[in-house]
Amino acid sequence: MRTRRLRVLGLVMILMLLLAACGGGGEEAEEGGATSEPAGAASEADGAETTVGADAEGVQALRDAGTVRIGVKYDQPLFGVNTPSGVEGFDAEIAKLMVEGIFRDGDPESHIEFTEAVSANREPFLQNDEVDMVIATYTMNEERDQVVDFAGPYYETGQQLMVPEGNPEGIQAPEDLNTSDLRSCSVEGSTSLQNFQELAPDADIITFDTYTKCAEAMNDGRVDATTTDGAILFGLVDEFGGFEVVGEEFSDEPYGIGIPDGATDLRLYLNERICQIQENGEWDQAYENTVGVVAETPAPPPIDPAFGDPVFPEGSECPQASGAGATSSEAGSEATSEMTSEPAAGASEAAS
Amino acid sequence: MNPITFLIDNWDLYIDGFIRLFQAANLAFVFAMVVGVVIASFRVSPIRPLQRFAAFYVTVFRNTPLLIIFFLFFFGLPKLGFTFTPFVSTVIVMSLYTGAYLGETVRSGINSVDTGQAEAARAIGLNFREVLGTVVIPQALRTVVGPIGNLYIANAKNTVIGTTIGLFVETTAAQRLANSTGQPIAAFAAAAIFFVVWLLIAAQVFTSIEQRVAFKR
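ok -> structure tokens follow
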């Protein structure tokens, strides 16, 4: 009886490990059905609407499928919020603009299937072909680039601090929180948290699974400051009131569009398309209707995935394509099976 | 990337989380045993209000999702002026929650004790508390070691929910690593290894206790 139970449990344990070993790879990322041939220059006679790269094979495949499956946040104020009338926010707007460039029929929403992608699901969704792209406050970084690919960035934010209105403790920078007298809050699993801990090693930190809990704890007076990407903090200020965002940004968080590893056609198309909406004002419009409610509209960031590889399709009309940022000094994004667990310098991410 | 390598690379973070989880779960279980015995005693006591209170207590805690209890306790009590740290909150919530289940388990143990035992104890002049404390409960506990072992395991796993109110446990570590490395599967599988090892050992311990204290009726 006793040995049998042990044996069964041992077997279960072995099975679990095997399962994990099979699934836990960054080494065997899906190809995402993309070819790595250079995108052919498009010959759309759309006048101003150039669509270089939109006719490449990898993009054509999406058009043939008729719908694009996009992973977004459902609970991120200003970026992706699931409402009865659909997903709203800047990420959702960007998604529509990206898809419009593929179908060009003025009704992108009919071609989009939104799925909730919480932070931990973003890479697996792309690797298992559950979504075609992820637009979910997804910070581009070196480590993630080894298992997925990125287009963009389409937006750039940085980590800041949020304190109760009036800033009773006079907090301006992470160093001010580097004491056990004050308590800071962030979300578990975020490199917002890691960044912060590097800057304030002696800080007293509490972590929750969502930023709304940080806000709640701040309301209760348990927490003196909350830290994450400025854009997310502005969303909380908008939602809760009674808080303010203080201090300079102390990290760079470029938000990119996550796509399956090796989906080169799609990446080139998306970069081109992001450039296009920046040029024609649609980017500004999308921003003003969403994040712009609580924050000033910034200049869009230059497109530069910075993980090697060409950024734009051949013959791109994007002014950036011939300028800086088109090439990168980084090594190629060949996935190496050796992964470090430390974030690359300057690489950090939005957790929520 | 397999979970074992992942675990070795990030050992510090995991072990830190595991130690905290281990402490919280075991502390909570000790208190839960106390809660369980008290609740079970109330339910078999001749005093009606105590019976009612115990029945009500068990109903409430068994039928409310743990996540909600955690949330209400941690974010609700401060509104009334009580503020506990995440660790203390987790221990209290888990004691109350697992205590409700243990109460039912102990009661079933009490019901299985031969009524002759209680009658004999009363016949030699023991009062209710002595009958229960020295004769019935010790026998009752010996008969339900198996179910108590199951509850220990459930309690250990449920304690992880403390992560939602800011307790740092190994799954918090996994969450953190999943996000920074883009490898959630390896990160969580590594966290699971701790459980498998810990709870395998716990199961063995309970099995041997069971064999040691079992008695023929």
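The first strand of chain A starts at residue 68 and ends at 72.
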